[in-house]
Amino acid sequence: MKTLRLILGDQLNIKHSWFKETNNDVVYCLFEMRQETDYVKHHIQKVIGFFAAMRQFSLDIESNGHNVIYLKINDEKNTQSLTDNLSKVIEEHRIENFEYIYPDEYRLDEQLKAFSNNLNITSKAVSAEHFYTKRDDLKQFFKGKKQYLMENFYRDMRKKHDILMVSDQPEGGKWNFDKSNRNKWKGDVSIPNYKLFKNNVDTIVSDIENAGIKTIGRFTTKTFSYPISRAQAIEQLKYFCEHLLIHFGDYQDAMHTEETYLFHSRLSFAMNLKLISPKDVVKTVMNYYRKHGDNIHISQVEGFVRQIIGWREYMRGMYWAFMPEYKDLNTLDNHNKLPDFFWTGNTKMNCLKHAINNSLDNGYAHHIQRLMITGNYALLTQTNPDEVDHWYLGIYVDAIEWVQLTNTRGMSQFADGGKIATKPYVSSGSYVNKMSNYCKNCHYNKSKKTEDDACPFNSLYWNFLDEKRDQLSNNFRMGMMYNLLDKMDKQDLQNIKEKAQHIIAHQDEY
Ligand SMILES: Cc1cc2nc3c(=O)[nH]c(=O)nc-3n(C[C@H](O)[C@H](O)[C@H](O)COP(=O)(O)OP(=O)(O)OC[C@H]3O[C@@H](n4cnc5c(N)ncnc54)[C@H](O)[C@@H]3O)c2cc1C
Ligand code: SF4
């Protein structure tokens, strides 16, 4: 039976059982499409990276003997729609059976479900063979529970997969080493050169220009620096183990004006496109740790493992547990717009300038820049979560809805009312100063609240707490901050609120 197998751009898993054997009756298809380049305005490097990895994948499987139909963005036969392309291929190649891998995005899942239901040939969907958990595992795990605590899920994952366990107890005597993961980087520990690939993407760039695809962000390096194949992903992972793991946990939350990646792995793009699996990543890191445990403290390894088997799987499970309703949640009733400087980096606030320019230059910002700088600012200025989602979904090379939405709308914007985070991740300038050197050379003064040169985060913070009192004052983790707010002199609070409202109304002047 002649079978067509669809490979979506984020399903480039060459280890998938589909590719174990060649079969002349099976043809694989990959499409570059306006449907995918235009559902949000993406960073130029994100479009480049997806096309580069897809083209490389197609070459790799073809050279392994598989039949491939690949439609480039400007191909005459390309209808730019997934279902129209599939219909045409099915007809032209007299396909009798259609197969696809379960998409990780709700949007594509619905589209392919509807398409398959209307086909007059047989069809089936198969597992991506990538994640530790199945789509609904997390929903089942938390069935009947009020709170979906990541920590509980993570501990269960550690036990279930026997990772960093000594019989049924956590290795090192603790489930987490969060307290030792909060150091400021002061330049005393040297950061190795970053592992940047020099993938030539000239043809792809002109294809994107010729197609007239609208993008955001910059691409000044001219070569694409993230891994675009399994081989490169493995190289990146090896580099991480040998050079960065040793301090990963220590400086996980640190930020610095001169350092883009610090000790972060830069693996999210490769993992999200499934060039490499989380199991491969964890296994490699654990093997390295077992061999070099004398030099590497367990806190570095646990910090990393938590991100992969904990946060990454948890975010995916939450996405499938609460979609499609999750996409519209706005519990804090926020409706402001993001300022223009999110697309230009043109602001006097040094922390935002660095986090945003990092994003514009590299399609990347590390976790704490995303959470405590751009996310914190968007929440304090009471921005509509739809606006925030669009920006995050477009700007990062690793942004795919299943992981972006839960991180942005949930963890960072608290728009889900606390399904993911137990309290909003908001802070004044003092936290930024504690974790970075941003405040040192900032136009604003981190210790002032209402003066012309006062750090905007300070007035925005107290104004936010005051305005969201109805939704937040009963949150037990916010009690201390509301006590402080209640003790504040009424006139002082009034001045602070006026300052904050001026900032919100004139964001691009700050
Ligand atoms: C507002 C916001 C939006 C985010 N959007 C995305 C997104 O679109 N895509 C994405 O992959 N990550 C997202 N994250 C999570 C995290 O910031 C990135 O995974 C990380 O910065 C990628 O860089 P890295 O590979 O160097 O990560 P490292 O710091 O080296 O971490 C290792 C790996 O752990 C995983 N990881 C770490 N934190 C998380 C998390 N919170 N959720 C899921 N996986 C995690 C990633 O796969 C990452 O590659 C977001 C976080 C926030 C706060
Ligand atoms: S002073 Fe305020 S605006 Fe400036 S870097 Fe620090 S936190 Fe950011």
TrEMBL record:
This is Deoxyribodipyrimidine photolyase-related protein. InterPro entries: Crypto/Photolyase_FAD-like_sf (IPR036134), PhrB-like (IPR007357), Rossmann-like_a/b/a_fold (IPR014729), UV-DNA_repair_photolyase (IPR052551). It comes from the Bacteria. Keywords: Lyase. Gene3D superfamilies: 1.25.40.80, Deoxyribodipyrimidine photolyase-related, DNA Cyclobutane Dipyrimidine Photolyase, subunit A, domain 3, HUPs. Pfam families: DPRP. GO terms for molecular function: lyase activity.
